[in-house]
Amino acid sequence: MGKQKKTDLLQGMLDLLVLRVLRHGPLNGWDIMQRIQLVSGEVLRVIPGSLYPALHRLEAQGLVAAEWGASENNRRAKFYQLTAAGRKQLNAEWETWKRFSSAVELILRDA
Amino acid sequence: MLSGIKTWLRALLRRSQVERELDEELRYHLERQTEQNVRLGMSPEEARHAAFRSFGGVEQAKERSRDARGVRGLEDLWQDLRYGARMLLKQPAFTLIAVLTLALGIGATTALFSVVNGVLLRPLPYRDEARIVTLWQSNLHSGVAREETSPATFLDWRERLQSYEAIAAIEPFGHSLIGNGEPERFRSWVVTENFFEILGAAPLQGRTFLPEEFGTGRGNVVVLGYGLWQQRFGGDPHLVGRQLTLNGQPHTVIGVMPPEFQYPPGRELWAPRGPRANDRQIRGGTYIKVIGRLKPGRTLAGAQTELQTVAAQLSAEYPQTNAQVGAVIVPMREVIVGQVRRGLLVLFGAVGFVLLIACANIASLLLARASQRSRELAIRAALGAGRARLLRQLLIESALLAGLGGMSGVLLAYWLIEALVALSPGNLPRLEQIRLDPLAGAFAAGLTLLTALLCGLIPAIQMTRPNVQAALKDEGRTATGGRTPQRLRQLLVVAEMALALALLVGAGLLMRSFVTLMRVNPGFTTERALTLEVQLGRNRTPEQMAAFVAQAQERLSLLPGVQAVGLTTALPFHDNQIVIPTTFSIADRAAAPGQESTAYQIGVTPDYLAALGVPLLRGRALTSFDQADAVPVVLINQTLARRHWPLEDPLGKKIAFDSFGRAMNCEIVGVVGDVRPRGLDQEPQPEIYLPYAQAPFGSATWLVRTAGDPLSLLPAVKEKIREVNPTQTFASIATLEQLLDHSTSRRRFNLFLLGSFAALALLLAGIGLYGLISYTTAQRTQEIGIRIALGAQGGDVLQLVIGQGMKLALAGVALGLVTSLGLTRLMASLLFGISATDTLTFAGVSLLLLSVALLACWIPARRATKVDPMIALRYE
Fold it and tell me: What is the ipTM of this complex?
């Protein structure tokens, strides 16, 4: 049960989490993965094989913009940054998630 | 939004760089993961492997990233295009033939579309052309449906008709130019007020006539046509405002019309026609064209009824001239293009047939190729290519072929249009409108698309049918080579043969019409005769004119190389004949009312009819003694004699008619043979020949019969005439043969084009049949080898192969005959002397097609007889 379920949920939510994580500044794919896992206290595990396609999809949709830069120890990495459209999308999806999760919470608690 | 587009463009245009970046990005991640693993205590080897495994599928991630870019569709398309191009390049012979065939088909169809567009479809350069109409008389007695009217009738129409904003009259005229290079005579039109306003065409330069310029003495102004301005005056930009000496008087050029302005066609000089003293008296001579602009709200039918009512009134008021004269309205466009519409549409349909045959050939070839690739296609289907993808692959190949064919076709069309315009009969209306323009380009693009679909869909759908198993099991080529594609190809060949037969029937009918026409006796001899049109009436009395003619005649007949000379006011096949329908009464014969006799009077010099080669059937010819003051005599032609004196001898009988306003009572002294007045397909009409001295019309034509080449004598002839009148100018100079040629030029043009299309269609259909039979025979090599091994002779093999092919040809001929029977009635108006279902033609072209089919089958059949059974049996 455990890990499998978390993975499925995570893939559906991946876009929202990525956008949120990028709100405070540009990050590369590795950093994004670390940040999500760190902040969620290792509860959420990101599969790179899903992350990178998601990042490229967001890039194609114009929600993030990418730039090559130097990471720590001066290696070249691709950094992603939220665009204005991405910011709007983040807020919209966050709202949707809040409504959705409160509804689920209501049912689980009181149904 | 913008960044999304930038990314998309980059993915499209910098594919390799984007791929490298993807690779680098994922490698970075793997390196970081590996480092982390090492920090967690794994060995470098293990760390790398673990990093790789925990990634979750690197290649799949790359694939999904590629999909996420959003250019997949385009990339696939590009890949398919390159693959298709490679396939085509691998078989250069096939590709070349296919592209050439399509180029020919698309090019020819586009060229003909441009012709149809320019002549029939483009709007006329006149304002609101639907309201512009032409008015004609119709002569119920002589059976002429549409003829010009007379000045007096025009004036009556102008007064009485209410349906028009304005109507105007147009009279043929001539202006002789001297003092500006070689003296030249221009045929011109003189027009009444409102002519240019009715048409609503603005001049290119300058202006058109003002109302006061139609008053007597104020009309020394002219408007030039574009062609004349360019050719005679070199397009001189300062010509407007200058004076030219025309007909001995200074005339000011006030305007130049644009090139599209061509009404009435054939002349490029317009001058004002003021009222003349005797306009109201001339009711018999018919030479006035009339145009009018309908008032808004008036219908054509209403105007027609009104016109016929007025014509009936005039019939009653002037029974001598206007009895039996009706009137008819014809819309302007009909007058300009009505004659050629049917022919052009038939040609356009014909070239469409050629294109269809070409497409069928290509489709058949693609079918053959596709069936050879059935195994490859089956494998690709097994590997997961959807049917749509396979279909697209095959369609792309035919699209590439069609695209190349279309582009070369447009180039070919440009050249073909130039050739068509150069070859076309000079009297093709709106010739200047024919050109390759964006609409033609769009038409070609549409044709290309249609062609791609037609050629590609049939094989594509056929070959992507899901019988993968059967194809995979199919080891090599079996004795059958696939049943269904064969039947489809057979159907295509039968269709091609049918279309080709239809075209051959059309061409055959036109050819027989033409041959029949050329056998018609024009009534005179056409070889070695020179004709020159002259204007005689300017500033001369009739006596002076007669004297001039006599003197010139004498000098000309003394010229070495001249066999005979004559002058006439109505030369057969000439386009400036003076047409005077004349009612006459026969002495001692009471004419029943409504039964008045009509004939056309022609003024001639004594030797003219002999010079023309018209036989004298009875009595005597006119002589120089039959002058203006002698007993008036006339000659009549056979048609007139037969009509009114079928059982008696007309010699010595007297007829009375009006000529030049004088009442004449003439004795018939001779009967001459008939001539065809304007075309070989026209019936002779009753004619009365008067001595020129008694009918001195202002415009006439010299006929000079020569011993040698007529044109070589031209300078000498001109010189002799100029000896009598130094400022003589000549309009229309031509040999009789040229005039005759000109009258059949439209027919020859139609025949040439339709014949070319038919020949091309025959060739393509023959090639199609040859291709199919070759292919199927090669497929059956094994079977044939077996038959030969079992004792079949060469003849049996020939019979086998040829029989297969001829069955198709016969089916095609049968289908074609049925189709032709239905279609040829559409071209009935183009034929002469034969019916649209002429059995001989149908039979003849069927035989021709079958012979070509036989040849197409015989070549592969012969190859088949040479099959070595041993090799064939081993061949797999």
Answer: 0.89
